[in-house]
Write a structure and sequence with these properties.
Distance between the termini: 17 Å
Number of helices: 3
Shape: elongated
Length: 68
């Protein structure tokens, strides 16, 4: 996994923790939850794009890796 993918994973984990904390404590309101959810979705889209670029560059898919 490349450095970019590690960064996206860490950002996703941090956003999920913040979303859970804000949701359970009812702190920050609905607007904060919506904004963080949008950031989470955008980060996931960027993660999928970087993953597809890495697969195109390396030419290895998950099925090819499992066959080895």
């Amino acid at each position: 996994m490349s450095t970019v993918m590690y960064i996206h994973h860490v950002i996703n984990i941090i956003l999920m923790i913040i979303l859970f904390i804000l949701n359970f404590t009812h702190f920050g309101g609905t607007v904060a939850l919506i904004v963080l959810s949008i950031f989470f979705i955008i980060n996931n889209i960027l993660l999928f794009r970087s993953n597809s670029k890495q697969v195109k560059d390396n030419g290895t898919t998950l099925e090819d890796f499992n066959k080895k």
